[in-house]
Amino acid sequence: MTFQPSTAVLPAGAPTDPARHDVVIVGGGAAGLSAAVTLARSLRDVLVIDAGEPRNAPAEGAHNLLGREGIPPLELLATGREEALAYGAQIRRGTVTTARRTDDGFALTLADGDTVTARRLLLATGLVDELPEVPGVRELWGNHVLHCPYCHGYEVRGRRIGVLGTSPNALHQTFLLRQLSADVTLFLHESPEPDDEGWEQLAALGITVVTGRVRELAREGDCLRAVVLEDGHAFPVDAVAVQPRFVARGDLYEQLGGTLTENPMGTHITKDMAGATDLPGVWAAGNAGDLSAMVGASAAQGVMAGAVINSDLVLADLRTAVEARVGA
Protein backbone atom coordinates (compact mmCIF):
# COMPACT_ATOMS: atom_id res chain seq x y z
CA MET A 1 0.00 0.00 0.00
CA THR A 2 1.32 3.46 -0.87
CA PHE A 3 0.68 6.04 1.81
CA GLN A 4 -0.57 9.37 0.54
CA PRO A 5 -0.95 12.53 2.61
CA SER A 6 -4.36 12.21 4.21
CA THR A 7 -6.81 14.43 5.99
CA ALA A 8 -5.47 16.26 9.00
CA VAL A 9 -6.09 15.15 12.54
CA LEU A 10 -9.48 16.40 13.66
CA PRO A 11 -9.07 19.35 16.04
CA ALA A 12 -10.66 19.50 19.45
CA GLY A 13 -14.40 20.01 19.13
CA ALA A 14 -14.60 18.62 15.62
CA PRO A 15 -17.37 16.05 15.11
CA THR A 16 -16.45 12.44 14.48
CA ASP A 17 -18.57 9.68 13.02
CA PRO A 18 -21.56 9.63 15.40
CA ALA A 19 -21.92 5.85 15.15
CA ARG A 20 -20.62 3.73 17.97
CA HIS A 21 -16.99 2.84 17.30
CA ASP A 22 -15.63 -0.64 17.49
CA VAL A 23 -12.67 0.63 19.49
CA VAL A 24 -11.69 3.93 21.05
CA ILE A 25 -8.00 4.33 21.81
CA VAL A 26 -7.09 6.97 24.37
CA GLY A 27 -3.56 8.14 23.61
CA GLY A 28 -1.85 8.75 20.26
CA GLY A 29 1.72 7.74 21.04
CA ALA A 30 3.62 4.77 19.66
CA ALA A 31 1.36 2.27 21.41
CA GLY A 32 -1.95 3.91 20.50
CA LEU A 33 -1.08 4.56 16.86
CA SER A 34 0.33 1.06 16.36
CA ALA A 35 -2.90 -0.38 17.72
CA ALA A 36 -4.91 1.93 15.45
CA VAL A 37 -3.04 0.73 12.36
CA THR A 38 -3.53 -2.91 13.35
CA LEU A 39 -7.25 -2.46 13.98
CA ALA A 40 -7.85 -0.33 10.90
CA ARG A 41 -6.13 -2.94 8.74
CA SER A 42 -8.76 -5.37 10.05
CA LEU A 43 -11.43 -2.90 8.88
CA ARG A 44 -12.40 -1.89 12.37
CA ASP A 45 -14.03 1.46 13.09
CA VAL A 46 -11.38 2.90 15.37
CA LEU A 47 -11.04 6.35 16.90
CA VAL A 48 -7.86 7.64 18.53
CA ILE A 49 -8.25 10.50 21.00
CA ASP A 50 -4.94 12.21 21.64
CA ALA A 51 -4.17 15.09 23.99
CA GLY A 52 -1.02 15.93 22.01
CA GLU A 53 1.38 15.75 24.97
CA PRO A 54 3.88 12.96 24.19
CA ARG A 55 6.19 12.10 27.05
CA ASN A 56 9.32 12.04 24.87
CA ALA A 57 8.70 15.36 23.11
CA PRO A 58 11.77 17.04 24.74
CA ALA A 59 14.12 14.35 23.41
CA GLU A 60 16.09 14.94 20.23
CA GLY A 61 15.62 11.39 19.00
CA ALA A 62 13.98 8.04 19.69
CA HIS A 63 16.53 5.24 19.97
CA ASN A 64 16.73 1.45 19.81
CA LEU A 65 14.04 1.60 17.13
CA LEU A 66 14.98 -0.64 14.24
CA GLY A 67 14.82 1.12 10.89
CA ARG A 68 14.01 4.50 12.49
CA GLU A 69 17.00 4.93 14.81
CA GLY A 70 17.32 8.49 16.09
CA ILE A 71 14.14 9.79 14.48
CA PRO A 72 12.76 12.89 16.25
CA PRO A 73 9.81 11.74 18.38
CA LEU A 74 7.33 14.22 16.91
CA GLU A 75 8.30 13.18 13.37
CA LEU A 76 7.74 9.54 14.29
CA LEU A 77 4.26 10.30 15.59
CA ALA A 78 3.38 12.41 12.55
CA THR A 79 4.31 9.49 10.30
CA GLY A 80 2.30 7.12 12.48
CA ARG A 81 -0.77 9.32 12.26
CA GLU A 82 -0.52 9.41 8.47
CA GLU A 83 -0.33 5.63 8.36
CA ALA A 84 -3.32 5.17 10.67
CA LEU A 85 -5.40 7.71 8.75
CA ALA A 86 -4.50 6.09 5.43
CA TYR A 87 -6.08 2.84 6.62
CA GLY A 88 -9.26 4.59 7.72
CA ALA A 89 -8.72 5.26 11.42
CA GLN A 90 -10.04 8.52 12.84
CA ILE A 91 -7.79 10.64 15.04
CA ARG A 92 -9.13 13.42 17.17
CA ARG A 93 -7.22 15.96 19.25
CA GLY A 94 -8.71 16.18 22.70
CA THR A 95 -8.67 15.04 26.31
CA VAL A 96 -10.95 12.39 27.75
CA THR A 97 -12.15 13.51 31.17
CA THR A 98 -14.59 10.75 32.16
CA ALA A 99 -15.23 7.14 31.24
CA ARG A 100 -18.15 4.91 32.16
CA ARG A 101 -19.37 1.49 31.23
CA THR A 102 -22.65 1.16 29.31
CA ASP A 103 -24.85 -1.83 28.54
CA ASP A 104 -22.94 -2.52 25.33
CA GLY A 105 -19.53 -0.95 25.82
CA PHE A 106 -18.17 2.38 27.00
CA ALA A 107 -19.01 6.07 26.88
CA LEU A 108 -16.21 8.62 27.03
CA THR A 109 -16.72 12.33 27.66
CA LEU A 110 -14.17 14.80 26.33
CA ALA A 111 -13.10 18.10 27.83
CA ASP A 112 -15.16 19.95 25.21
CA GLY A 113 -18.31 18.16 26.40
CA ASP A 114 -18.64 15.77 23.47
CA THR A 115 -19.26 12.06 24.11
CA VAL A 116 -18.07 9.10 22.06
CA THR A 117 -18.97 5.46 22.51
CA ALA A 118 -17.16 2.22 21.79
CA ARG A 119 -17.51 -1.52 22.11
CA ARG A 120 -13.95 -1.88 23.39
CA LEU A 121 -11.48 0.51 25.02
CA LEU A 122 -7.69 0.66 24.76
CA LEU A 123 -5.82 2.85 27.23
CA ALA A 124 -2.52 4.00 25.74
CA THR A 125 -2.36 7.00 28.01
CA GLY A 126 1.31 6.74 28.97
CA LEU A 127 2.80 7.95 32.23
CA VAL A 128 3.98 11.06 34.02
CA ASP A 129 7.59 11.40 35.16
CA GLU A 130 7.66 12.75 38.71
CA LEU A 131 11.08 14.39 38.73
CA PRO A 132 13.24 15.17 41.77
CA GLU A 133 12.49 18.59 43.21
CA VAL A 134 15.94 19.97 42.48
CA PRO A 135 16.18 23.28 40.58
CA GLY A 136 17.49 22.71 37.08
CA VAL A 137 16.26 19.14 36.71
CA ARG A 138 12.96 19.99 35.06
CA GLU A 139 14.46 22.75 32.95
CA LEU A 140 17.10 20.41 31.47
CA TRP A 141 14.91 17.29 31.33
CA GLY A 142 15.18 15.35 28.08
CA ASN A 143 18.40 17.08 27.11
CA HIS A 144 21.21 17.23 29.68
CA VAL A 145 19.12 15.39 32.28
CA LEU A 146 18.24 11.80 31.44
CA HIS A 147 17.08 8.66 33.19
CA CYS A 148 17.47 5.72 30.80
CA PRO A 149 21.00 4.62 29.83
CA TYR A 150 19.56 2.73 26.87
CA CYS A 151 17.42 5.58 25.56
CA HIS A 152 19.97 8.39 25.78
CA GLY A 153 23.16 7.07 27.37
CA TYR A 154 25.05 6.72 24.11
CA GLU A 155 24.63 10.42 23.44
CA VAL A 156 26.64 11.27 26.60
CA ARG A 157 29.26 8.53 26.21
CA GLY A 158 32.74 9.48 27.34
CA ARG A 159 31.53 12.65 29.05
CA ARG A 160 31.33 13.71 32.70
CA ILE A 161 28.16 12.10 34.03
CA GLY A 162 26.60 12.69 37.42
CA VAL A 163 23.98 10.44 38.98
CA LEU A 164 21.52 12.19 41.28
CA GLY A 165 20.62 9.60 43.90
CA THR A 166 17.01 9.56 45.03
CA SER A 167 16.38 5.82 45.50
CA PRO A 168 18.18 2.52 46.09
CA ASN A 169 18.23 2.08 42.29
CA ALA A 170 20.85 4.84 41.98
CA LEU A 171 23.67 2.32 42.45
CA HIS A 172 22.51 0.13 39.56
CA GLN A 173 21.99 3.15 37.34
CA THR A 174 25.52 4.29 38.16
CA PHE A 175 26.99 0.93 37.11
CA LEU A 176 25.12 1.05 33.80
CA LEU A 177 26.42 4.52 33.03
CA ARG A 178 29.97 3.51 33.97
CA GLN A 179 29.85 1.27 30.89
CA LEU A 180 29.53 4.44 28.81
CA SER A 181 32.04 6.72 30.53
CA ALA A 182 35.08 6.50 32.78
CA ASP A 183 34.04 9.75 34.49
CA VAL A 184 30.93 8.98 36.55
CA THR A 185 30.08 10.56 39.90
CA LEU A 186 27.36 9.33 42.22
CA PHE A 187 25.75 12.10 44.27
CA LEU A 188 24.06 10.26 47.12
CA HIS A 189 21.65 13.16 47.81
CA GLU A 190 18.56 11.27 49.10
CA SER A 191 19.58 7.70 48.28
CA PRO A 192 20.75 5.35 51.03
CA GLU A 193 24.45 4.84 51.48
CA PRO A 194 25.79 1.70 49.79
CA ASP A 195 26.50 -1.35 51.88
CA ASP A 196 30.03 -2.76 52.16
CA GLU A 197 29.66 -4.67 48.89
CA GLY A 198 28.38 -1.58 47.13
CA TRP A 199 31.31 0.55 48.31
CA GLU A 200 33.69 -2.14 47.11
CA GLN A 201 32.03 -2.23 43.68
CA LEU A 202 32.14 1.55 43.34
CA ALA A 203 35.82 1.60 44.27
CA ALA A 204 36.63 -1.19 41.85
CA LEU A 205 35.12 0.82 38.98
CA GLY A 206 36.74 4.09 40.02
CA ILE A 207 33.43 5.83 40.59
CA THR A 208 33.52 8.98 42.73
CA VAL A 209 30.88 9.20 45.45
CA VAL A 210 29.77 12.56 46.86
CA THR A 211 27.76 12.75 50.07
CA GLY A 212 25.49 15.62 51.06
CA ARG A 213 22.33 16.99 49.54
CA VAL A 214 22.26 18.62 46.13
CA ARG A 215 20.99 22.20 46.03
CA GLU A 216 20.68 22.68 42.27
CA LEU A 217 21.92 21.90 38.81
CA ALA A 218 23.80 25.01 37.73
CA ARG A 219 23.21 25.99 34.14
CA GLU A 220 23.82 28.72 31.61
CA GLY A 221 20.75 28.98 29.43
CA ASP A 222 20.02 25.47 28.21
CA CYS A 223 23.48 24.15 29.08
CA LEU A 224 24.28 22.19 32.23
CA ARG A 225 27.40 23.34 34.03
CA ALA A 226 27.63 21.67 37.44
CA VAL A 227 25.96 19.84 40.29
CA VAL A 228 25.94 22.18 43.29
CA LEU A 229 25.66 20.91 46.87
CA GLU A 230 23.87 22.74 49.67
CA ASP A 231 27.26 23.84 51.02
CA GLY A 232 28.00 25.53 47.68
CA HIS A 233 30.58 23.04 46.47
CA ALA A 234 30.18 22.65 42.67
CA PHE A 235 31.12 19.61 40.60
CA PRO A 236 31.38 20.24 36.84
CA VAL A 237 29.38 17.71 34.80
CA ASP A 238 28.08 17.40 31.25
CA ALA A 239 25.02 15.28 31.99
CA VAL A 240 23.01 14.14 35.00
CA ALA A 241 20.98 10.95 35.37
CA VAL A 242 17.96 10.91 37.68
CA GLN A 243 15.41 8.33 38.77
CA PRO A 244 11.89 9.70 38.33
CA ARG A 245 8.89 8.07 39.90
CA PHE A 246 6.74 6.80 37.04
CA VAL A 247 3.00 7.35 37.46
CA ALA A 248 0.69 5.88 34.85
CA ARG A 249 -2.09 8.10 33.60
CA GLY A 250 -4.69 5.77 35.03
CA ASP A 251 -7.57 8.03 36.08
CA LEU A 252 -9.90 6.62 33.41
CA TYR A 253 -9.05 3.07 34.47
CA GLU A 254 -9.89 3.97 38.06
CA GLN A 255 -13.16 5.61 37.00
CA LEU A 256 -14.16 2.31 35.41
CA GLY A 257 -13.52 0.47 38.66
CA GLY A 258 -9.89 -0.55 38.22
CA THR A 259 -7.11 -0.26 40.77
CA LEU A 260 -3.60 0.85 39.88
CA THR A 261 -0.71 -1.40 40.91
CA GLU A 262 2.24 -0.07 42.89
CA ASN A 263 5.79 -1.26 42.34
CA PRO A 264 9.24 0.17 43.21
CA MET A 265 9.22 2.23 40.00
CA GLY A 266 5.77 3.78 40.47
CA THR A 267 2.16 2.95 39.61
CA HIS A 268 0.75 1.20 36.55
CA ILE A 269 -2.26 -0.62 35.12
CA THR A 270 -1.94 -4.37 35.53
CA LYS A 271 -2.33 -6.20 32.22
CA ASP A 272 -1.43 -9.50 30.65
CA MET A 273 0.98 -10.06 27.76
CA ALA A 274 -1.74 -9.17 25.25
CA GLY A 275 -2.78 -6.02 27.09
CA ALA A 276 -5.99 -7.30 28.67
CA THR A 277 -6.68 -5.72 32.06
CA ASP A 278 -8.78 -6.94 34.97
CA LEU A 279 -11.73 -4.98 33.55
CA PRO A 280 -13.68 -6.77 30.78
CA GLY A 281 -13.41 -4.93 27.47
CA VAL A 282 -10.52 -2.73 28.61
CA TRP A 283 -6.95 -3.14 27.34
CA ALA A 284 -3.76 -1.21 28.08
CA ALA A 285 -0.59 -0.77 26.03
CA GLY A 286 2.65 1.15 26.35
CA ASN A 287 3.79 2.93 29.49
CA ALA A 288 0.33 2.96 31.06
CA GLY A 289 0.80 -0.75 31.76
CA ASP A 290 4.57 -1.14 31.43
CA LEU A 291 6.61 1.56 33.12
CA SER A 292 9.89 0.48 31.52
CA ALA A 293 8.69 0.11 27.91
CA MET A 294 10.75 2.04 25.37
CA VAL A 295 9.26 3.26 22.08
CA GLY A 296 9.76 -0.01 20.20
CA ALA A 297 8.29 -2.08 23.02
CA SER A 298 5.32 0.26 23.33
CA ALA A 299 4.64 0.00 19.61
CA ALA A 300 4.83 -3.79 19.79
CA GLN A 301 2.38 -3.84 22.69
CA GLY A 302 -0.01 -1.69 20.66
CA VAL A 303 0.12 -4.15 17.75
CA MET A 304 -0.53 -7.10 20.07
CA ALA A 305 -3.38 -5.38 21.87
CA GLY A 306 -4.96 -4.33 18.57
CA ALA A 307 -4.81 -7.88 17.24
CA VAL A 308 -6.33 -9.38 20.38
CA ILE A 309 -9.07 -6.75 20.55
CA ASN A 310 -9.98 -7.50 16.94
CA SER A 311 -10.09 -11.23 17.74
CA ASP A 312 -12.30 -10.54 20.75
CA LEU A 313 -14.71 -8.58 18.56
CA VAL A 314 -14.71 -11.29 15.90
CA LEU A 315 -15.72 -13.88 18.49
CA ALA A 316 -18.38 -11.58 19.94
CA ASP A 317 -19.86 -11.00 16.46
CA LEU A 318 -19.71 -14.73 15.79
CA ARG A 319 -21.71 -15.50 18.92
CA THR A 320 -24.28 -12.91 17.90
CA ALA A 321 -24.56 -14.39 14.41
CA VAL A 322 -25.00 -17.91 15.75
CA GLU A 323 -27.64 -16.81 18.24
CA ALA A 324 -29.52 -14.94 15.50
CA ARG A 325 -29.41 -18.00 13.21
CA VAL A 326 -30.59 -20.35 15.97
CA GLY A 327 -33.37 -17.98 16.93
CA ALA A 328 -34.54 -17.47 13.35
UniProtKB/TrEMBL annotation:
It catalyses: [thioredoxin]-dithiol + NADP(+) = [thioredoxin]-disulfide + NADPH + H(+). The keyword tRNA-binding does not apply. Gene3D superfamilies: FAD/NAD(P)-binding domain. One of its GO terms (molecular function) is thioredoxin-disulfide reductase (NADPH) activity. Residues 21-288 form the FAD/NAD(P)-binding domain. It comes from the Bacteria. Keywords: Flavoprotein, Oxidoreductase. It holds the Pfam family Pyr_redox_2. This is NAD(P)/FAD-dependent oxidoreductase.
